[in-house]
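Q: May I have one protein plus its fold?
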Amino acid sequence: MALIALAADKGAPGVTTAAVALGAVWPRPVLVAECDQAGGDLVYRLPAAAPGGEGDGGMLNPARGLLSLAATARRGLRPDQVAEHCQRLVGGLDVLVGTTNAEQAQAMTWLWGPLGRAFAGLAPVDVIADCGRLGAGTPLLGLLREADLVVLLTRATLEQVAHLRERVAALSAELRGGPPIGVLVLADPRDFRGSIAEVDRIILGARGRQVPDPAAAPGPPPPDVRVLGGLALDPKGADLLSGRWGGRLDRSLLIRSAREVAGDLTARIAAASPVSPASSPASAGTPEHPGAAAPPPPGDAPAAGAPAAGPRESGPHAVPNGRPAAPPDARPDQVPAGGRHEERGR
């Protein structure tokens, strides 16, 4: 199905948090894959599901994931090899755990192109790849070229938007003929739409000032670049999502805004690449169980403050193509419920 690469420039502002938040409410079967060159964080943040599927199974296994997959991929990598190296978080979200440090990632530069192709062929499962920080000449270019969409995160501050603008220009040159580039703004809920509009103005203005080089060799066009919307800058929600529980995560501004973004992204991807009935969400399984039927929607939500499981399965929700993200301060009845892995506080 689709491969969505999430990344950032300087500081990687909340890329892992955004990847998990989007995966928790993604309206289709999904796998969150840690591809950060600096090493992954999920092992230290979130617990694995118990073998029986209920309750806390303890710490994720750092040796089962990208490291074990790389060890088996020397003679080639097929999409059906990915599943056996995935793990499941409490509540049902499937993850591919990344490396534990940058030294391990340096020995795996050959893997990213084949891994991107394997992710892109992992029907009927979408893959959200947490690519962390992108620098000059990043080895992840092979993976990014296989993506359906590259999404860059930024906060609405002068320094981060300035760095983002330069990274967009560099990626546009490196990904000519490749996937479109989208921007998600981590926006303060007090000025949610204003922050997104300001970043949009800066990014579009920078592209409008670019002058084509008449001496440049002809070739494929640069990718389309646009601001897709925003995620609420919600430290409390991020703490809940990182395993420091203490409230109703499904009511947090972060998850409510993530639900809107997830619906918008899947609608855009579906419009660009029509999905056949055989790979529709109704017949979809999971990375660990590709042929399994999707579980039924959960029952009524627990009362506020009551303990509940982590991300939970539920049915997909429809969001019109191109619909902008709703402001995170919208009333609960204005935000569509559901998502395949609904996060709830525990």
Notes: Residues 275-284, 289-346 have pLDDT under 50 and may be disordered. Residues 49 and 56 are 5 Å apart (CA to CA).
